[in-house]
Amino acid sequence: MERAQRLSVIHLAYFLGVPLVIAVYAGLNNWEIRHAAGTVGSLAFYAAHAFLPWWITCLSTTLFKHLLATWKPAWPLLLLLGHLLGASLVLPYSNWLIGVYDASFADMSLSHPATAFLSTDFWVYLLRAGVIWFGVNFLFDRFLGLPLYRYEIPRGYENGHASDSASSIEPDSAAWPGMTPAFVARLPQALTPDDLIAIKAEQHYIKIFGKQKNHMVLYRFSDAINELSPELGKQVHRSFWVNTAAIENVHARAKDFYLLMRNGEKIPVSGPYQGMVRDLARSNNIEIKS
Question: Rg of the chain's alpha carbons, rounded to an integer?
Fold first, then answer.
């Protein structure tokens, strides 16, 4: 499976698969709700209790990650803060959902789990949900290569999963002027400056466009372009870096400004970089099509 596809599958598993598994497991194992509402009703109850709270907790943690970016706290602290905020935001919804089921099914008595903020039941829920939240994130972070709530990508994360190996290949250091970029060592095959077409940011990954093949590597985009020589290429978009030698021509239309690369790839150029790209094209005798 291509790394881009694998990354998409991992994201789907995290955002959809995890709450689905929680809902199915809990829905099939709560005999009180199954007796009163049936299996379908029980699954629906726990699906409502799993998907929205999971997504709210993810959003809460992401919010803290952005708010605290200046201090860059460790990811377990971000998980804790996100969990606390998420649980507090979910509480009114959870109590409403329990009330709906209590009123809908005569044989059901769920009023006792309806919790008040900072009650004993709330702390029990917080602890139980916290174990799941931390356990799942540790699994995806450490073993599946999805460090969603880290500011820095740890060394040893290669090829979409954690590894004890620091590199996949021995790079040809003679091919690169100056120091060989560290991300090149993480590729499954050798890459020279002539092979490199462009680099695209893909969340925690970078997509490397090559002449023959593309690669996905768990790496920070900003680190990757800082490791490349300014003479080799330029950043032309917040998510794209291009090799100057690989530009076929420049399409400089007002609402459709892009670079046509020698592998046929079209790379968008955002407003702040358009003047620089025009100057780059003129100084390197690259055709500009208006």
Answer: 25
